[in-house]
């Protein structure tokens, strides 16, 4: 597997490059949340994955909302095509490979530090934002099994709409998860939260 590295120069370039692009592409980014997190816990963020922009938006969340060090899991074949992302906190996972378990264990290790945030796209693939029912990958159990009091789980739903403007707005909805820490329970809660977000989006 490819472990995350954090290089300040690369992070500076990544942040400013995407900030400039987003200025021309989007009207604004809004965050709808009442999430409350203790400072002594890390964050495991479950996020829908529907666009090229998702990594940048979750990076901005890590800075502006969570104030934690950004890490995100990416398929190894995709990361190797964009290796500069590794120096911005991206680490790899390879399906159907013995490195798969190493990546999950590595993510668990990152979460042992309360200053960290780990982003996971639970479906493991890009899906349209209109698909509200998503099947979570079972391997997530390897991260949330056992002692988990040291990190908080947060659900994130990213939705894009134009609302009558030339440029779209990205709205990010966040919610604390406090149910049973199993893939099945989190998946059910995520589906319910997603539907709630879509309803708010259309009000």
UniProtKB/TrEMBL annotation:
Q: Which GO terms describe its molecular function?
A: acyltransferase activity
Record keywords: Lyase included?
A: no
Which SUPFAM superfamilies does this entry report, sorted A to Z? Glycerol-3-phosphate (1)-acyltransferase
Residue ranges occupied by any Phospholipid/glycerol acyltransferase domain in the UniProt entry: 31-144
Signal peptide positions (record): none
Task: List the keywords (alphabetical).
Answer: Acyltransferase, Transferase
Determine the domain of life of the protein's source. Bacteria
Concerning InterPro entries, the annotation shows: Plipid/glycerol_acylTrfase
The cross-references to Pfam families, in alphabetical order and at most eight, read: Acyltransferase (PF01553)
Protein name listed in UniProt: Phospholipid/glycerol acyltransferase
**What is the native source organism of this protein?**
Aquipluma nitroreducens
């Amino acid at each position: 597997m490819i472990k995350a590295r954090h290089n300040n120069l690369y992070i500076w370039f990544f942040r400013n490059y995407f900030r400039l692009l987003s200025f021309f592409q989007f009207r604004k980014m809004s965050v709808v949340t009442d999430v409350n997190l203790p400072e002594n816990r890390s964050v495991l963020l479950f996020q829908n994955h529907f666009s090229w922009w998702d990594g940048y938006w979750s990076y901005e969340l890590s800075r502006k909302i969570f104030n934690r060090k950004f890490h995100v899991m990416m398929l190894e074949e995709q990361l190797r095509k964009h290796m500069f992302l590794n120096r911005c906190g991206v680490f790899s996972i390879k399906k159907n490979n013995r490195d798969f378990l190493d990546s999950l264990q590595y993510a668990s290790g990152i979460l042992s530090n309360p200053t960290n945030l780990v982003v996971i796209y639970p479906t493991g693939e890009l899906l349209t934002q209109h698909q509200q029912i998503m099947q979570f990958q079972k391997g997530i159990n390897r991260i949330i099994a056992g002692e988990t009091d040291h990190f908080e789980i947060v659900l994130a739903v990213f939705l894009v709409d134009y609302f009558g403007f030339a440029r779209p707005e990205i709205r990010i909805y966040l919610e604390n998860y406090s149910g049973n820490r199993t893939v099945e329970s989190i998946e059910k809660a995520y589906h319910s939260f997603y539907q709630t977000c879509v309803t708010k989006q259309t009000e």
